[in-house]
């Protein structure tokens, strides 16, 4: 019998045409939302419920969607900071990554999943390696994820075959919570020949592509030197954008690049926290949005952010545009929250995710209102975007299942994850000290 | 008999020459720190203790110092966002502020104090009105504060007399936790004649000055039109900087302005969250720091931030400089945390505050390490600055007294504050709807 869960007495932020229902009521059947209403449930409906959540006036909204991260990198959080990019990569990150194992990626990913669930993220897009272990962590935890085997084209075609196997094994796996993409790392690490092979495979497997694009000024300059065009033009001319594409970063894009992204329905994952911390720069998302590019939000890996708190990215993506352009009307609260919800679903080609509406997946978070920074509440969306601390997320539902209840994880042994992640983090970094 | 409190088994971040003691032990006698050591206490010392806090490996650091806010404005949080500055002020903030009462300021300030204590702030600098009610909230809550009656010079001299009375009544009040400054609002709201009177009073009462300075481009342009010089030059020539001065914002300052600030030991309160949100711009704190200007951090009021989370300001002040200047080595983690601690003490002319060292005031916070974003901990300072969620602050000591223990406020009825603040927030904003 399909499980029925009811949510009562909530301030429901639907992300559906700016509707806020207060009080609002949500009926969940199995993995889906069946009804969102301002009418209380009748006794008949209540009798059918397996679980009733009395939200007591708390905020209820769609689970947040992190469209670009490398979950296993949480093991390298606080390992190397305040360094110039190449010094950081060459002397700290790459050597440590070389020590990563299947087991360490598994625990690092679980650590990231704990952090994401506790801060309200219900779906994440990951690009890394040892992806079977990432998928295993997703399957066990109840998370939703879009997974890509990261591929460096210079290193031969092994990763392509691995990616194909991964797609065959995991696409639509974990009761449908896992979907896949192909993940050529970036134009500067994947030569045209490799990108062509990736494109053929994308057509063959009907897979979208997830790629880093124009993150730093240096890679754009290098691309012009090598191909006499921008990385965006380069990928466009190779035909990459013929398949649905998720482009992460897009910091250094010009007006023509933005037009190409818009014309080809390329979705952008804006990673403002990481872009700031690595000194990459500030992506022109105001322009992208005005050109109707789909812009969503990602944290990037925890070694360059240094957390996976998507509400922080929501706030940053609004504040930084306002401050940088000296215009407080840019990226209003609703637009910022849209990027973390419904636009995230669009970006990950998950049309049933990111909104509280009938037939959408039941990915839902409850934010406890009893915290000083949420008083008063003249405007619930502004409260969430501009003042809310993500630790106020109390209950999280993914695919109709409660994975956190009143702050307690239901599917993961949190203490064990901390212990194992800490142990593996020490192992991979201690090796480089010898 | 003087109360003795011991803190054991902590990761003590002293903010004293980058020393981290792990494990570290702190002996508190009355309102002061007597000893900070890596040696466990002997049985003799333990016998003298009235309270022993076993920190169990948690992070212990100096309480954070918020050097510029308007605490009562928390009642206007989420009341008006995403608006251009003058539209926001003229049509929303000023009319609502006109409805503020003595009681509403009291409850708004308490709401802010709850938020500040819970997020690790132990001292704040406030400039507003109905300051007796602000002082009352500070006295009752156990907070430490530097208070200034905000004065608009265009409105006559009443506020000057009020400020004088306030200083006489409250300076060194609340067992020494309250100190005062004189608060002429800004050069553009205080004509030279009024500033001269303020300066005389500052000399007479031996009070520092707390003033808004060069927050927006518009006020700098206007200052040039009226006086043919920058606001910084203007204040300097009026002799304001002859008394110790706290200048809030300093967003639009040029190299010459920075030199003047440095030469005159003017302390700057950097309010990056508010500066971003209001579209004011990004202060050149990297330059100020390299010229040895004392830079500390402030949240500004909660209606333009929209929270009073100083750890968020710490992170923003580092990330935004790195991103804006495309240089990840700017404002490293230690420098950022210094601005929120020891530099805050310097800014507020509280030389005994902001460091964990003998003879410093016992203003201490404990951050619970058991949270996903604090694992692993290759570098505790990076953990706190770049990934920590301020909700992990578990215990707060101010002036030697425990004001929050394991997340529970000891001096404030939190529920009552939420209820009253909400009620007063509705009252002041409902009036404008009629």
From TrEMBL, chains A, B:
Zn(2+) binds at residues 68, 70, 212, 300. Binds 1 zinc ion per subunit. It is an enzyme of class 3 (hydrolase). Coiled coil: none annotated. Its EC number is 3.5.4.28, 3.5.4.31. Its cofactor is Zn(2+). This is 5-methylthioadenosine/S-adenosylhomocysteine deaminase. It comes from Natranaerobius thermophilus (strain ATCC BAA-1301 / DSM 18059 / JW/NM-WN-LF). The lineage of its organism: Bacteria, Bacillati, Bacillota, Clostridia, Natranaerobiales.
């Amino acid at each position: 019998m399909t499980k029925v869960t009811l949510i009562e007495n909530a301030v429901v932020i639907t992300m559906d045409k700016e509707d806020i229902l207060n009080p609002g009521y949500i009926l969940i059947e199995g993995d889906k939302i069946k009804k969102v209403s301002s009418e209380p449930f009748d006794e008949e409906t209540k009798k059918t419920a397996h679980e009733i959540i009395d939200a007591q006036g708390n905020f209820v909204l769609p689970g947040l969607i992190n469209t670009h991260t490398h979950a296993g990198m949480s093991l390298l959080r606080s390992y190397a900071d305040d360094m110039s990019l190449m010094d950081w990569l060459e002397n700290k990150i790459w050597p440590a990554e070389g020590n990563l194992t299947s087991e360490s990626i598994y625990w690092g990913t679980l650590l990231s999943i704990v952090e994401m669930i506790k801060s309200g993220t219900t779906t994440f897009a990951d690009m890394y390696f040892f992806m079977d272990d990432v998928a295993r962590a997703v399957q066990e935890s109840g998370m939703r994820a879009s997974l890509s085997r990261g591929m460096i084209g210079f290193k031969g075609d092994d990763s392509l075959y691995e990616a194909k196997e991964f797609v065959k094994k995991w696409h639509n796996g974990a009761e449908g919570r896992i979907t896949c993409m192909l993940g050529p790392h970036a134009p500067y690490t994947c030569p045209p020949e490799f990108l062509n092979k990736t494109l053929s495979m994308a057509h063959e497997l009907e897979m979208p592509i997830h790629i880093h694009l124009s993150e730093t000024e240096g890679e754009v300059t290098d691309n012009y030197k090598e191909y006499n065009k921008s990385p965006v033009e380069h990928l466009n001319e190779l035909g990459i954008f013929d398949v649905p594409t998720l482009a992460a970063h897009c910091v250094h894009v010009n007006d023509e690049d933005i037009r190409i992204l818009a014309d080809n329905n390329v979705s952008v994952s804006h990673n403002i926290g990481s872009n700031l911390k690595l000194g990459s720069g500030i992506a022109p998302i105001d322009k992208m949005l005005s050109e109707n590019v789909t812009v969503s939000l990602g944290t990037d890996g925890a070694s360059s952010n240094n957390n996976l708190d998507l509400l922080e990215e929501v706030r940053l993506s609004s504040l930084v545009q306002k401050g940088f352009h000296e215009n407080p009307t840019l990226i209003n609260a609703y637009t910022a929250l849209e990027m973390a919800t419904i636009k995230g679903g669009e970006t990950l080609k998950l049309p049933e995710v990111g909104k509280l509406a009938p037939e959408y997946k039941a990915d839902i978070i409850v934010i406890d209102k009893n915290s000083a920074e949420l008083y008063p509440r003249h405007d619930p969306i502004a409260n969430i975007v501009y003042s809310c601390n993500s630790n106020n997320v109390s209950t999280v539902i993914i695919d109709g299942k409660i994975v956190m209840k009143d702050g307690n994880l239901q599917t993961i042994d949190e203490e064990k994850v901390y212990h194992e992640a800490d142990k593996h983090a020490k192992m991979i970094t201690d090796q480089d000290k010898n």
